[in-house]
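A further point concerns the way the authors explain their paired sequence and structure data. Nothing conveys this as quickly as seeing an actual entry. An entry of this sort, consisting of the sequence and the corresponding backbone structure tokens, reads as follows:
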Amino acid sequence: MGDTSGSGLNGGRFLFATALLGAGVAISQFGSNGTEQAMICFAAGLVAIVAMADLSSPAKHNPQAAAPIREPEIKPISQHRDFTSFIDGLADPVLVLTGNNVRRANSAARKLLGEYCVGEDIRLVIRHPAAADLLVEGSAAAEGPIQLVGIGSRDQRWEMLVRDMPGGERILHLWDRSGVYAVERMRTDFVANASHELRTPLASIKGFIETLEDNEAGADPDTRARFLNVMFREANRMQKLIDDLISLSRIEAEKFRVPDTPVDLPDLLREVQTVLRHSHPERGADIVLDIAPGLPPMRGDRMQLSQLLHNLVSNSMKYGQPGTPVTMRLRTSRNGALVRLSVSDCGEGIAPEHLPRLTERFYRVDSSRSRAIGGTGLGLSIVKHIVERHRGRLEIDSEVQKGTTITITLPADPRTPQIGGTAANPDLSVPA
């Protein structure tokens, strides 16, 4: 709403100026001579012009318009009403600096740097040479982010960024880059390990070929047969390694797509048992099936689950004691929402310090023994990625000199009827 009294006053003055000009014109019509008429008309017009100018001046009737425009006072960012609640909602550590002192710190920063960091000199709070150089007042604005190692824990890596803000304050932001660095390190290690694993058999094959090219060594049938046998074994090792790398790449590419095909797990276990008994007759006879009745149905990728079982059972056959059972057990949870598949052996077992790293690519407890029996170091890594794609859980329990049990828990599918009915006796297959 405008000022109604001011607009009424302006309207009255406009009418007054108009009337004054009209009066001057009227008087000039009845004047005695032309000179008087001209003077009266000129005076009336001058008065009217002055009145109109007075009317049009905003400074006369609106003193605020005449006053100079004053710039709004810039408050420090930390004094804004919702600033504290805003930075406390951030997951990354954020600090507000006045000079080199910490004025504000969100909860993530206090958890990382200590509850009493507020009020301290930032160079004492973050004791790092690169950070101290960046935090010298006046030098931070032109600098980009820097990398910090060892804040919080020895392996954590941070990216620190400092920016000047209106009001004379600075914002310090710490971004946790540990996960990105770990992924990059895994990628680098994977390429290096894969290159090494392929280079070793390739160098062996090349060396034997060069030996066989020698007329004297190549002419001996026993030497040639022995060398060709080693070359064939190394070539198979390379082929298996390449197959595992391709398989792992495919599984990772599909990890966000949940498999949705009905799978009969008891039938799959019987199939794996039959295949391994024929391909490894010396240890295949030790495979035992223990399948509970009334199993809930599930959905998955049958080919990948078959690969999972082959990897687990093959490992148990390799590292278990000859003549001892390798048991594939299938159970359900009490509420029927989960299916538990386990593979156990009676072998040497694995020391506790190795258990957290068993699913890493190319990790081996005993490298020489693993290579001697044809292992690629990717079997359990493939198992882990298959379990993750099926939204399951992998557990490894082992006791030295007693054996190892690997348990996989998979979600059941409530959309289809149960498999196997409600028979009283489990499907228990003993070694032949």
